[in-house]
Write a structure and sequence with these properties.
- The structure is a single chain.
- The chain is mainly alpha-helical.
- It is built from six helices and no strands.
- The chain has a single domain, classed as Ferritin (Up-down Bundle).
- It is elongated, with a radius of gyration of 17 Å.
- The structure holds fe (ii) ion.
- The site of fe (ii) ion has 2 residues, from loops.
Length: 181
């Protein structure tokens, strides 16, 4: 396959080099496939955890005339991401891996840009969160392809659900910039 991102080539290499011991399971997916999926799931896990914290950061700090709508929307974004986070982490464990969800690992592995600390207006928070959602949406779409090409239709399906949900959240955030009326 032609990897859509540089990280994908890196991921394939890391996944096939990994000799991490898997927890025993009667799951019939091949160990090689499971190792690759655990690596992919943990990469997406780091990003979605970062994204969830970014939504909370926006929820807490947004100000301005559209405060209440945005404050509530950003919280809804964080809550929905929490469900995806749980599904991604648990699938890594189902496949015999360890979910890597600590702050220290997330800080090292997340591919999102650091959330700006000095912004306040609704417009700034909408722009920052929309761009983080879009970035995660793009890597999730690439993860669907990677999972299906590796032969794990269920992980591909999980990422498809996440991708559809993230597209919807992006729409809800971006809609604030799409009309002046
Ligand atoms: Fe709150």
């Amino acid at each position: 396959m032609v990897p859509p991102f540089g990280w994908m080539a890196e991921w394939f290499k890391r996944a096939s080099d990994m000799k991490t011991k898997l927890n025993p399971t009667q799951n019939d997916l091949r160990a090689k496939t499971r190792r690759a999926m655990i690596e992919l799931l943990n990469q997406q896990l780091a990003d979605v955890l970062d994204l969830g914290f970014q939504a909370k950061q926006a929820h807490w700090n947004v100000k301005g005339p559209h405060f209440i709508g945005l404050h509530e929307l950003f919280d809804k974004v964080a809550k929905e991401l929490e469900e995806f986070t749980d599904d991604i982490a648990e699938r890594a464990v189902e496949l015999g891996g360890i979910a890597l969800g600590t702050i220290q690992i997330v800080a090292k592995r997340s591919r999102l840009d650091a959330y700006p600390l000095k912004i306040a207006s609704g417009k700034q928070h909408v722009a920052a969160l929309a761009s983080a959602l879009a970035k995660f949406g793009a890597s999730t779409r690439a993860a669907i392809d990677a999972a299906s090409k590796t032969g794990d239709a269920d992980t591909a399906d999980l990422f498809t659900e996440v991708s559809r949900g993230v597209d919807k959240l992006l729409w809800m955030v971006e809609a604030h910039t799409q009309s002046k009326e």
